[in-house]
Design goal:
This protein has about 375 residues and is an alpha/beta fold. It folds into three domains: about 120 residues, Nucleotidyltransferase, domain 5 (2-Layer Sandwich), CATH 3.30.420; about 60 residues, no CATH class; about 130 residues, no CATH class. About 45% of the residues lie in helices and about 10% in strands. The strands form two sheets. It has a five-stranded mixed beta sheet with strand order 3-2-1-4-5, sandwiched between helices. A two-stranded antiparallel ribbon has the order 6-7. Helix 8 crosses helix 10 and helix 11 runs antiparallel to helix 12. The protein starts with about 25 loop residues before the first strand and ends in a 13-residue tail after the last helix.
Length: about 375
């Protein structure tokens, strides 16, 4: 006797179990500042696309406007289906739309097939077109178009709750936390509220510790400005674009060390390559892993800042000459600029040689 076929579960998220009928289909490309909304409206030939600020009320107004356009074309809309990819703050919006009679779905981002071309074009408009095709296939009940996420209940952090107006950097942020409300009008869940209060307490403790460290550092510079490391810090701070944080880090981590020559400085700063040579073959394996990673990160950040503050210096002109006509080379060349700049600063604090074209602050 043949076994009966296993029935598909009622909560299957790989395809829609609701019979497909002409409806207003909308997909949204979400970002922090704005939303790109693309729709398919029955009776309307054009497929509209609209960029909105990240506001759920503006989205609802747009959906109602498009519903009115469909009804003017002779199509009564009984079902509006909206979908967007799971991301930073997608679930709260789905709950908010469902509470207002809109059928909302959250697409699992990894379930949408993408082109395998190495250099495929990628824009928000192209992404919405791709989401529309996947969503329509899912609505028709076809398999393998995309998969939906199960929308969780209200238990998440502020971004997922849809709270956008809260600034944790404000002095009275902990006091305001208890009075916050989600777009659905609900208070923050108790466990989440307690977690956020602990996070703010830790943040306040770290801020106070950083403030104490900065105060102690300034007092050390005032007490003994002419001693070795302190004098180096003051010399570096004369270079416009270098503040006390960067100067102190470079002096403590590398410039106060007894390094043999410029090559040793670049190696310790982790700004040299790692060539792989064997016979006639030669290739570069990227930056060497030996050395001080903190110096490398700090110098690359300083190199970008240096281009803004020291535009007429020899190093800045050297960088522009090699990157203005070479597309895509700025990120590679910034490492070379960071290496040259580190060596130049080493000469400055050790020998007093000012890099060519560098503007200095007046000495105090």
């Amino acid at each position: 006797m043949r076994k009966p076929k296993k029935q598909k579960p009622l909560n299957d998220l790989t395809r829609s179990l609701t019979p497909f009928d002409p409806n207003q289909t909308v997909v949204i490309e979400l970002s922090k500042e704005s939303w790109l909304v693309a729709g398919i409206i029955p009776g309307v030939e054009r497929q509209p696309i609209k960029k909105l600020r990240a506001d759920e009320n503006d989205l609802l107004k747009l959906l109602e406007r498009w519903r009115g356009e469909a009804e003017k074309a002779g199509h009564k809309i009984n079902r509006i289906a909206v979908a967007f990819e799971a991301g930073r703050d997608g679930f709260w919006l789905a709950r908010w739309l469902r509470a207002r009679g809109i059928e909302a779905h959250v697409i699992h981002a990894a379930s949408v097939a993408v082109s395998r071309e190495h250099r495929r074009a990628k824009t928000d408009r192209l992404d919405t077109e791709q989401l529309k095709r996947a969503f329509l296939g899912w609505l028709r009940g076809e398999r393998n178009h995309c998969k939906m996420c199960a929308i969780p209940t209200i238990e998440a952090t502020l971004a997922r709750l849809g709270i956008r107006s809260f600034n944790p950097k404000l002095k009275k942020a902990p006091e305001r936390l208890e009075h916050l409300r989600t777009p659905e009008g609900e208070p923050i869940p108790p466990n989440t509220l307690a977690e956020l209060q602990r996070d703010l307490a830790r943040k306040q403790l770290i801020v106070e510790q950083i403030r104490e460290i900065e105060k102690e550092r300034l007092e050390q510079l005032k007490r003994a400005p002419k001693t070795g490391p302190n004098l180096m810090v003051l010399v570096l701070m004369r270079v416009i674009g270098i503040g006390i944080e960067t100067a102190d880090m470079l002096v403590r981590e590398i410039l106060s060390r007894n390094l043999r020559d410029r090559r040793a400085v670049a190696r310790y700063g982790r700004l040299t390559g790692s060539p792989d040579e064997s016979g006639k073959s030669r290739r570069e394996k990227g930056l060497a892993r030996s050395g001080n990673a903190r110096v490398r990160k700090g110098m690359i950040q300083l190199a970008w800042r240096y281009l803004d503050y020291q535009k007429e210096s020899a190093l800045a002109k050297w960088f522009r000459a090699r990157t203005e006509n070479a597309r895509g080379s700025r990120k590679k060349m910034i490492v070379a600029l960071a290496r040259k700049l580190l060596i130049a600063l080493w000469h400055l604090v050790r020998d007093g040689v000012v890099p060519e074209g560098v503007i200095l602050r007046p000495a105090h």
